[in-house]
Amino acid sequence: EWLEQASHDEKVVAIGEIGLDYHWKEPEPEIQKKWFRRQIELAKKVSKNAYTPYSNFKVGAVLKTKQGKLYTGCNIENHGIMSICAERVAFVKALSEGEREFESITIVANGGTPCGYCRQFMSEFVDKDFSIYIVKDNKQEKYTIQELLPYGFCL
User: Fold this and answer.
1) Residues 84, 153, 95, 132: is their CA dihedral positive or negative?
2) Which of 24, 65, 89, 103 is deepest in the core (most CB within 10 A)?
3) Is residue 14's pLDDT more than 90?
4) What is the C-alpha separation between 4 and 23, in angstroms, rounded?
5) Which of 77, 87, 103, 147 is catalytic?
């Protein structure tokens, strides 16, 4: 079993929604695949919490920090003001907990890539090689923020 007792040289992943800490030594490729599948499962699960009475377009996202913590988000529509996308919900949760270093985000939706607002928002907090995984119908696409926002606005 790849879950082991924690020691000083192991990484820790905390999945707040589930309330579990997993400890492992440097993961093998198969273990990384398991973790990616778990992120997809979490994104699908959280997408069911989306509030989408107007579009019925449900999106789930799982943001992974460089330390391995996972933060989930779903989209929330509002008829009176701008809605908030799943990507930004995940980022806001992580940022409000003091996180500042991010590795990737996994997004489950019925198509498309992050909107322009989300691309610009994410670019404030990530490196240019930040990975964005889009999952639709069990097919996966990978982009970097640089690919999706080559000329982002910067003050």
Assistant:
1) positive
2) 89
3) no
4) 6
5) 87
